[in-house]
Design a protein that fits this description.
The protein is 6% helix and 37% strand. The protein is mainly beta. It has a domain of 89 residues: Trypsin-like serine proteases (Thrombin, subunit H). The strands form two sheets. Strands 2, 3, 4, 5, 6, 7, 8, 9 and 16 form a nine-stranded antiparallel beta sheet that branches. A six-stranded antiparallel beta barrel has the order 10-11-12-15-14-13. The protein is globular. This is Trypsin-like peptidase.
């Protein structure tokens, strides 16, 4: 039997992680992309956020591209402050958890070096603990998606911001698939032993080639981590009814 699972959004006014229950229903579409940036304006991102010359994985400052795509999310909520993680999937789109952006008055997003990213619209899923955040500012890097979900025994690396602190990279392996203990209708999710903590919610889980294989959304009572599989994320992004505009205060 799967141990009780806890969501991992770091809450400033609560101690430890919270049990996450319920889901949002309804139909909708992903939030629209922002207006195109005028061609005569150059984004103000620091030069060291650009990929290394020759298309290598390392940037000039030594950060791997898969680390540079991770963002810290600070949710200035209706009643409390919380923190979480997210990752880019294209120049203007972030993936995170629904509970990371819930009950938000304002979302503050920043990169590993403290560069602030202006947020546009946000939408949340009804089926899984997923959210899509559109950004006005361009994102510095985004990873490749894996071709298939991982199998038990495959390595997994989690890149995120536990406790809203510094960027961390933890490693483990996929242990098994299991029924989602938090969202009864979702079906199978991935169980791994990669360490995660409050604030890790929304982190990208990567394979040994740096490709996304899932999204961290909770941990179990025995400190294993739970991932929404890549295939579920892709199916939901392709479904016009999967996401609805996020409700704030």
């Amino acid at each position: 039997m799967t141990s009780p699972a806890r969501s991992l959004a770091g809450r400033a006014l609560l101690v430890g992680a919270l049990f996450l229950t319920g889901s949002l229903g309804g139909c909708g579409v992903l939030p629209p992309l922002p207006e195109p940036v005028p061609s005569d304006i150059v984004p103000s991102a620091p030069p060291d956020l650009s990929p290394a010359a020759g298309g290598g994985a390392l940037s000039p400052d030594g950060f791997d591209a898969v680390e540079r795509m991770a963002v810290r999310i600070r949710n200035v909520g209706c009643e409390e402050l919380s923190t979480g993680s997210g990752f880019a999937v294209d120049d203007h789109t972030l993936i995170t958890n629904k509970h990371v952006v819930a009950d938000s008055k304002e979302l503050e997003v920043s990169t590993y070096d403290g560069h602030d990213i202006t947020v546009g619209a946000t939408a949340t899923a009804g089926l899984a603990d997923l959210a899509v955040v559109r950004t006005t500012d361009p994102l510095p890097s985004f990873p490749e998606l894996a071709k298939t979900d991982p199998k038990p025994g495959d390595p997994v690396t989690v890149v995120g911001y536990p406790a809203g602190g510094e960027l961390t990279v933890t490693e483990g392996k996929v242990m098994s698939t299991t029924r989602d203990p938090l969202n009864a209708n979702l079906g199978e999710v991935l169980l791994t032993d990669a360490p995660v903590e409050p604030g890790s919610s929304g982190s990208a889980a990567l394979d040994d080639k740096g490709r996304v294989i899932g999204v961290v959304y909770a941990k179990t009572a025995d400190d294993n981590s739970l991932l929404v599989p890549l295939s579920t994320l892709q199916d939901m992004l392709a479904d016009d009814t999967a996401f609805t505009p996020a409700k704030g205060c």
